[in-house]
Specification:
Length: 278
């Protein structure tokens, strides 16, 4: 049977990667498959939005290198919010270099991403050495990796054979690759002449950007679909919503953030319940 017919709780109970198990457990416990992407450029803004959105999401996604006044205290406060509100932190770093270089980028420099981000992600462009390099740092710390098997933007090149190669590479690193950034259930085979081939046993978390209820795009290539299209229609597991919630710029006021979080949480959860029933 397809992964999309199983509940988050059932999947959490059997997941071999601790951080994936933790994420699926949070989705079940808080009844949310919402990941809020907080793309603001100030420390105070990032913390304010994470505090407001925290109760409604399973994950907060950061782009830490856009924060003008980054300091170590920011990640400490973010970690405290993650504990308080029960969410995971995903640094959307999109690593894309050879193994030795990404190992250093992940562990060192100003950001020391591996020390605070439960999840990060990578492109497979450099080959599988990138997975060996990142795993050498992240796995001992109990971190998880998403591979960018597909992207949301118009005209992106992560398609076809490239997407397939991402899934194959993930299967060779089952201890560290917990899932994919993708627009659909890339880990399950399409219907073939011999019938529907089931997933090959592994459970991958599909996290999907390009989600919005009020807009179809942003004039810079982003394309939006609804939570229902993403979760029920395409079988993805987590919706990632940025501007639809924080509003762009320095961010909406807190009441608006809470209102939008509730709206997306509800829509994402309804789509999940509808998918279980279909
Ligand atoms: F991998 C990807 C992708 O394919 N599309 C994306 O939009 C990542 N993203 C990120 O999701 C992007 O970098 C933003 O941080 C976020 C989407 O933000 P939005 O405001 O909801 O468009």
């Amino acid at each position: 049977p397809s992964i999309t017919t199983r509940t988050y709780a059932e999947r959490a109970a059997k997941h071999p990667i601790p951080v994936a198990k933790q994420l699926l457990d949070i989705c079940d416990r808080k009844k949310t498959n919402l990941c809020v992407s907080v793309d603001v450029t100030s420390k105070a803004g990032l913390l304010r939005i994470a505090e407001a959105a925290g109760p409604y999401c399973c994950c907060i996604k950061t782009h830490i290198d856009i924060v003008e006044d980054f300091d170590q205290d920011l990640v400490q406060q973010l970690q405290a919010l993650a504990d308080k509100h029960d969410f995971l932190i995903w640094e959307d770093r999109k690593f894309a270099d050879i193994g030795n270089t990404v190992r250093l980028q992940y562990s060192s420099g100003i950001y020391k991403i591996a020390s605070w981000a439960h999840i990060t992600n990578a492109h497979l462009v450099p080959g599988e050495g990138i997975l060996t390099g990142l795993a050498s740092v992240g796995q001992p710390l109990g971190r998880g990796l998403l591979l960018l098997a597909e992207m949301s933007a118009k005209g992106n090149l992560a398609t076809g054979e490239y997407t397939t190669k991402n899934v194959e590479a993930a299967r060779r690193h089952p201890e560290f690759v917990m899932g994919f950034v993708a627009m659909r259930r890339v880990d399950e085979r399409e219907e073939t002449a011999g019938g529907v081939a089931p997933g090959e046993g592994a459970d991958y978390v599909i996290m999907t950007p390009g989600v919005g209820l009020d807009s179809k795009g942003d004039g810079m290539g982003q394309q939006y679909r609804t939570p229902d299209e993403v979760i029920r229609g395409s079988g993805c597991d987590v919706i990632i919503v940025g501007r639809g919630i924080y509003g762009g710029g320095d961010g909406n006021p807190n009441e608006e953030i809470v209102k939008q979080c509730k709206r997306y949480q509800e829509a994402g959860w309804k789509a999940y319940e509808d998918r279980l029933r279909q």
